[in-house]
Amino acid sequence: MSHVILIGAPLDCGKARRGCLMGPDAFRVAGLAEAAGSLGHTVEDRGNCAPGPVTAQPGAPDHLIALPETVAWTKALAKAAEAAMGEGLPVFLGGDHALALGTVSGVAAHAAKLGRPQFVLWLDAHSDFHTPLTTTSGNLHGTPVAYATGRDGFDAFPPLPAAVPDENVCMIGIRSVDPAEHAALLDSRIEVHDMREIDETGIAAALRPFLERVRAADGMLHVSLDVDFLDPSVAPAVGTTVPGGATFREAHLVMEMLHESGRVTSLDMVELNPFLDERGRTAALMVDLAASLLGRRVFDRPTRSFA
Questions:
Q1: For 33-75, how does the pLDDT look when each residue is reduced to its tens digit (9 = 90+)?
Q2: What is the DSSP letter of 218?
Q3: What residues does 170 pair with on adjacent strands?
Q4: How far apart, in Å, are the Cα atoms of 137 and each of 12, 73, 129, 146, 296?
Q5: Is the pTM of this model over 0.70?
Q6: Does domain 3-300 have CATH number 3.40.50.1000?
Q7: Exposed / middle / buried, residue 196 (Cβ in 10 Å: 0-12, 13-18, 19+)
Q8: Could you give the residue numbers annotated as active site?
Q9: Number of C-beta neighbours around residue 42 at 10 A
Q10: 241-278 as b/e: b if 16+ CB within 10 A
């Protein structure tokens, strides 16, 4: 059993549409701590992380949204992530996906100190492989994978203590990629499984070889779970809905396989916008998925009603 450490990250600066600020509290209300505890884990809720002082970033591209705030959050979350990794299994409650600029860099720094490779499983409709120089929207929640893997253009952000090698990143659920990201991904060694592939061969076939690589390398695995990995028909509470996402069963299968691998060492739960939810159904589903990752079996799943 694990010591699960809940760390709220109510940042809402990675994009223009507001609402993810309320995500951490929604996960708590939906019973995340209780679900983890019922599975035999010890649970510690450290409350919400807070950014340090916000400083101006002269010379940065003008179109970037809330760059100083995002940099401040990145510094705070990297520090919190690295510290928590030495004490248990941190679960970061978002907040938009810009939080992964800090969480992934922080867990990777811890892995480097241990001399172990860091792997990242990116469950998302988007690749988030833009840099501040390539994003046209200015939304920095579309840049975490680029930052964590050491791409150029992040001069305003803290230098990476340890970049995650491209080949240690696996993306599943991808179905919305901008041209600049597409070109960069083709030039990288990142493993990308889009929904066309999932439809043809199944989600287990995409995940199983990656988990075997993590096991063979004795790697540490960070899972970054975006609400829009899921189809909006089952998870409507996200401002970046893309039709054609993972089904309820596909998502649970991924979580069950992750638990069985025994390799997950940290988790992001991001982009929940409770303002867009329907009677808490998305928050409840995300908590159920986290419970599957933590060991809940299919026969143990509680019945929920949204009537």
A1: 999 999 999 999 999 999 988 887 777 788 899 999 999 999 9
A2: T
A3: 121, 191
A4: 15, 20, 13, 16, 39
A5: yes
A6: no
A7: exposed
A8: 97, 124, 126, 128, 141, 226, 228, 271
A9: 12
A10: bbebbbeeebbbbbbbbbbebebbbbbbbbbbbbebbe
